[in-house]
């Protein structure tokens, strides 16, 4: 058995058949400013 995976299917894949999608961040991480404000508010 070979250590490397069989890439023949991947090499023949047609990227043009994929649909273009827009990615949107659903739950963005808070900024440093937001974290500092929350810390000051709780203290």
Automatic annotation (TrEMBL):
Belongs to the thymosin beta family. It comes from the Eukaryota. This is Thymosin beta. It comes from Lepisosteus oculatus (Spotted gar). Residues 1-43 are annotated as: Disordered. Plays an important role in the organization of the cytoskeleton. Binds to and sequesters actin monomers (G actin) and therefore inhibits actin polymerization. InterPro entries: Beta-thymosin, Beta-thymosin_sf. Keywords: Actin-binding, Cytoplasm, Cytoskeleton.
């Amino acid at each position: 058995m070979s250590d490397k995976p069989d890439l023949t299917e991947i090499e023949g894949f047609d990227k043009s058949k994929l649909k273009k999608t827009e990615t949107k961040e659903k739950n963005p991480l808070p900024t440093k400013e937001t974290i500092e404000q929350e810390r000051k508010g709780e203290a």
